[in-house]
Prior knowledge:
The protein is α/β, with parallel strands linked by helices. The chain has helices at 39-45, 93-96, 104-113, 159-162, 168-179, 195-207, 219-228, 241-248, 264-271, 296-302, 314-326, 345-353, and strands at residues 2-5, 14-17, 27-37, 55-56, 61-68, 80-83, 123-124, 130-133, 142-146, 150-152, 187-191, 211-216, 232-235, 254-259, 274-282, 305-308, 336-341, 360-364. The protein has 2 domains: 2-168 and 312-364, Medium-chain alcohol dehydrogenases, catalytic domain (Quinone Oxidoreductase, Chain A, domain 1), CATH 3.90.180.10; 181-308, NAD(P)-binding Rossmann-like Domain (Rossmann fold, 3-Layer(aba) Sandwich), CATH 3.40.50.720. The strands form 4 sheets. Strands 3, 5, 6, 9, 10, 17 and 18 form a 7-stranded mixed beta sheet that branches. Strands 13-12-11-14-15-16 form a 6-stranded parallel beta sheet, sandwiched between helices. Strand 11, helix 6 and strand 12 form a beta-alpha-beta unit. The chain is globular and about 65 Å long. This is Zinc-binding dehydrogenase.
Amino acid sequence: MRAAVHTAAHEPMRIEQLADPAPRAGEVAIDVRSCGACHSDLHVLKGELPFPTPSVLGHEVAGVVAEIGPGVRDLAVGDRVVTSFIMPCGQCGQCSRGMEEICERFFRFNRGQGKLYDDDTRLHRTDGEPVWMYSQGGLAERCVTPVTSVYRVPDNLDLADVASMGCSTMTAYGALRHAADVKVGDTVAVVAAGGVGSGLIQLAAVFGASTIIAVDISDDKLDGARKLGATHVVNSAEVDASAVIRELTGGRGVDVAFEARGAVPTFNIARDSVVEGGQVVVVGIAARGTTGEFDLATIARRKLQIKGSYGAKPRRDMPVLLDLAARGHLRPQDAISRHYSFDQVQEAYDALNRAEIQGRAIIDIT
């Protein structure tokens, strides 16, 4: 099969021929149709998140089941599926207590070493050299993943439209539902209107937020945010964004501010935009060593809550999101602004690095 192989930080990915991967017990092989271009991949490509090489990135996968491993039930060859970037083992302490979004084995084996849970990769060059996997390694014609991360796609949804649901939309849902527990009538700010920010805006509207303020430095992204449901937009390159957010909320600030970029300036805006007792939810993945600041006395006096959120609970939440999309309440396709062919995969990430992508870009593999 063809795969986009990452070999070193700041070097372009190369399309190579790898051996076709095969599933083992409890796993599924998927012929990839589409894969979203996520900023987490970009962090790896730039060396900001350590990960072994050579490796195949890509974790927003939609495709067709090609083969099932021993013990897999409820899926069949030919099923149209989408994956979650979190691949819960279902057995570790975190999974056992309902915290599968921080599955211990996922972080130990996959994020730490590029392997699946038998301590081995499924990807190899044709000479047998191992190639490591970032989640399922979806920037390839075929990938293998645990069945716990695979979900059937309703017949009325296009695969390319739902590819990004397994990361950007699921990450947004986890932040809104589990970290912040946004309720009807709440006021929210989304600081950075990129891929995850677009999902936050869409889902905040689904959740019934009364005010949704999108903040970004790009007028194009802010125009897109309005189309996705933002009630107000603020260009933080032109104004003091936190001050404007307070003005828009009658001087009080928002109930929840989501930081969706993983950067100090966006964290500062979110931190300074919330009401007394409000929540600052950090969703964006920052480069290692990035440090945000806050005044401990202010945090205590204003009873601020600063939370982290790393995705949703796949086995509980992915079926909910797919049902919302099937019924038309959620339209992930509205956040997709560009499609690239597989041969243009590096161009997609270069555009992402230049902050040119509104919402999500999709790489059409086959």
